[in-house]
Write a structure and sequence with these properties.
It is a single chain. By secondary structure, this protein is mainly α. The chain folds into two domains: 1-136, Alpha Horseshoe (Leucine-rich Repeat Variant); 182-311, no CATH class. The chain is 68% helix and 0% strand. It has helices at 2-13, 18-25, 34-47, 59-68, 75-91, 93-98, 100-111, 120-132, 138-142, 145-152, 161-174, 182-198, 205-218, 225-234, 243-257, 262-271, 278-294, 297-300, 305-310. α11 (161-174) packs parallel to α13 and α15 crosses α17. The protein starts with a helix and ends with a helix.
């Protein structure tokens, strides 16, 4: 917070001196002292959030140095470097278009950080990537789309609400680029659908809001007009949701459009019978009940009754 206030004040009042200040700070990014690297990275990351950076000759140097900090031994430096790269979307969005592939690769590397026990680097990478997606060229994201979707999926059920929210919002944002990989990404939507629908009962309102957004974004790619309309009309941020009635209608559309998916949808729901969140634990058997209610007799044979009966 202090770095942000100082940086904003300097961006507003110290414009002509900023190139010299930045030039003096950049060597500190390689300091042997962690606290100096953290302070310098935090300051430059916040400076990249201001449109004053458009006028800095050293902008590309700052960007390169932020990228170079990805292998820093200090986790806070790695996290702040990703924040700085994501902030370029606010400070100099045209640079995101120019360096899209490089910036996206940095975010993917951040999500794959091996020395990140609490997933703070991954969290920053997901949040920053969501900001960058508004400005990248479609060709730059296409080759990474599937990897990112698969990588973030486990975070949907994280015990940390921030990770659940950021990963789900990012997934929703990724659907904007799914047209060229429609069949491949549709599979990812199906893989995440049960989880997103169940987390509409998440104990954290910000996660519920993220699920509503992601489902609205997924709707047009699902090939079911009725389902798409339901997501758009019933999952608006300002609208309360009658969950049981909503799920009854969702399952009706699912079984009309994808009856062959019944067993797969049931199996995913069974995983949540032992969820640590009571409302999600209660929603899963209701979800299965509505699926079975609306499936036709021909596809009802898919249901593994022994699996259902034995599930506690």
């Amino acid at each position: 917070t202090r770095d942000r206030c100082v940086c904003r004040a300097m961006a507003r009042h110290a414009g002509p001196r900023l190139p010299l200040i930045v030039k003096d700070l950049i060597p500190m990014l390689s300091s042997v002292l962690d606290n100096q690297r953290v302070t310098a990275t935090a300051f430059l990351a916040e400076l990249l959030n201001s449109n004053v950076v458009k006028d800095l000759i050293l902008l590309e140097t700052m960007m390169d140095n932020m990228t170079g900090r990805q292998k820093d031994s200090c986790m806070s430096v790695r996290m702040l470097a990703l924040r700085g790269l994501g902030n370029i979307s606010s400070g100099a969005p045209e640079k995101v278009r120019k360096h899209g592939a490089k910036l996206l690769a940095s975010m993917v590397n951040g999500m794959d950080d091996k020395d990140d026990p609490h997933n703070l680097v991954a969290l920053e990478a997901m949040s920053s990537l969501s900001k960058l997606l508004d400005h990248v060229e479609e060709r730059d994201i296409q080759s990474m789309l599937l990897h990112i979707a698969i990588r973030i999926r486990p975070f949907f059920d994280s015990e940390q609400p921030d990770l659940r929210k950021s990963s789900i919002v990012l997934f929703g944002n990724l659907t904007k680029f799914s047209e060229g990989n429609c069949e491949v990404f549709f599979e990812q939507i199906l893989n995440g659908l049960v989880t997103l629908l169940l987390h509409l009962q998440d104990p954290k309102p910000e996660v519920v809001k993220a699920c509503k957004f992601a489902l609205r974004m997924c709707g047009p790619s699902m090939g079911c007009e009725g389902l798409c309309d339901m997501f758009l009309n019933h999952l608006r941020e300002d609208r309360s949701l009658h969950y049981g009635e909503f799920m009854n209608n969702v399952c009706k559309h699912l079984m009309q459009s994808y009856p062959e998916m019944l067993n797969r949808l049931i199996s995913t729901n069974l995983f949540y019978f032992k969820s640590s969140w009571v409302d999600i634990r209660a929603a899963a058997p209701m979800f299965i009940g509505f699926l079975v209610l609306h499936v036709d007799e021909d596809h009802c044979q898919q249901v593994d009754l022994d699996q259902l009966i034995s599930c506690e």
